[in-house]
Amino acid sequence: MQISDIFRNRRPSISFEFFPPRTEKGAKSLLATIHELKELNPSFVSVTYGAGGSTRDLTHQLVLRILQETSIPAVPHLTCTCHDAPEIEAILNQYAEAGVSTILALRGDPPRDRPDYDRSQDIFQYASDLIRFIQKFNHTHQHPSGGFGIGVAGFPEGHPETQNRMKEMDYLKAKVDAGADYICTQLFFDNHDFLDFRERCHLAGITIPIIAGIMPITTPEGMVRMAELAAGVHFPAKLQRDLAGLEDSPEAFAGAGTSYATEQCRELIREGVEGLHFYTLNKSSATRQIATDLGLGGSRP
Questions:
Q1: CB 214 within 8 A of CB 264
Q2: Which pTM value belongs to this model?
Q3: How many helices (H) and strands (E) does the chain have?
Q4: Domain 3-294, what fold?
Q5: CA angle 99, 105, 110 (to 5 degrees)
Q6: How confident is the model over 123-147, as pLDDT tens digits?
Q7: Catalytically annotated residue among 17, 157, 168, 274
Q8: Between helices 85-98 and 56-70, what is the axis angle to 10°?
Q9: Do 49 and 88 form a contact (C-beta atoms < 8 A)?
Q10: pLDDT class for 249, splitting at 50, 70, 90?
Q11: From CA 295, how far away is CA 292, in angstroms rounded?
Q12: CA separation for the pair 200, 195 (Å, rounded)
């Protein structure tokens, strides 16, 4: 099924993001999580791609296992950094043969072990370049589903490398014009940021589906790590107030964080969000609770 069909047939869609484990123990644990979340009847799941393509093989292996063991549509991330055209074409061929129908096209981060990495030497400078290459692949290769659908990233709170918000929207529009089919946003905790971003997209002539990235906060350590990894992420005062004083009570902290995310999703659904994409950190409990409370997917409140 094409990604456009998913958004046409289901509102809101629900989807989950996973990262490829580096050990067999981690892989078994994740597969158990995926089977638990399968009960929610997700529209698709996505699999991340490490900085500089560092998890290339692990990402491919996890995508194959998801397709073979669950039949859930799997959307692999694919990045520009450190890849030339023949490598990208080989990856696309592998995914086409495996039955993958959608790619999330990203610029990607430089390799963590190469702080002096020169992006200017990359064949694909921006995600829009990668999107055009995928579209060219679609037109020149036989693909069982008729060609890859393409997702791209959006940043409701602003891209950390682009201070000019007008330019930032120009860059997003360039990705859409290059052939993107949907936008998946970075995580956010203030719905105003998402709703304003969505309206600015519409003003810029962007009409493809925009799905909201949601990450429930379940541990104090996770909140700190999130602040370090997601540059510029905004933790609203209400969220901080809800979590204040609960650091020594893991169950209460997780409950408060999950309740906050549930209310976030409830409001977004009222506002007509086209999809909810949960950043799971390879765990299932918080996402399952939110879906159950809201009656999403195959869950029942």
A1: yes
A2: 0.93
A3: 11, 8
A4: TIM Barrel (3.20.20)
A5: 125
A6: 888 999 999 999 999 998 877 667 9
A7: 17
A8: 10
A9: no
A10: very high
A11: 5
A12: 9
3-class SS at 141?
coil
Query: What whole-number distance in Å separates Cα of residue 132 and Cα of residue 137?
Result: 9
| Alpha helices by DSSP H, 125-235 | 127-140, 165-178, 191-203, 220-229
Give me the amino acid identity at 169. M
Q: Is the pLDDT of residue 175 over 50?
A: yes
d(CA 217, CA 287): 11
Give the angle subtended at the CA of 1 by the CAs of 26 and 99, to the nearest 5°: 55
Which position has the token pair 């949960």? 278
d(CA 110, CA 123): 14
Q: Which amino acid, one-letter code, is at 257?
A: G
> Please, are residues 212 and 283 in contact by the beta-carbon 8 Å criterion?
no
Instruction: Summarize pLDDT for 207-242 with one digit per residue, the tens.
Output: 999 999 999 999 999 888 887 766 678 899 999 999
Known catalytic residue: 263? Answer: no
DSSP-based three-state secondary structure for 278: strand
Nearest-CA neighbor of 147 among 102, 117, 108, 114? 102
DSSP annotation of 120: G
Instruction: Check residue 151 and report its DSSP letter.
Output: E
pLDDT digits (tens, 9 = 90+) for 182-209: 999 999 999 999 999 999 999 999 999 9
The count of other CB atoms within 10 Å of the CB of residue 220 is 15
Q: What is the largest CA-CA distance in the chain?
A: 58
Tokens representing residue 141 in the block: 């290769």
DSSP state of 43: S
Cβ proximity of 212 and 275 under 8 Å: yes
What 3-state DSSP class applies to 279? strand
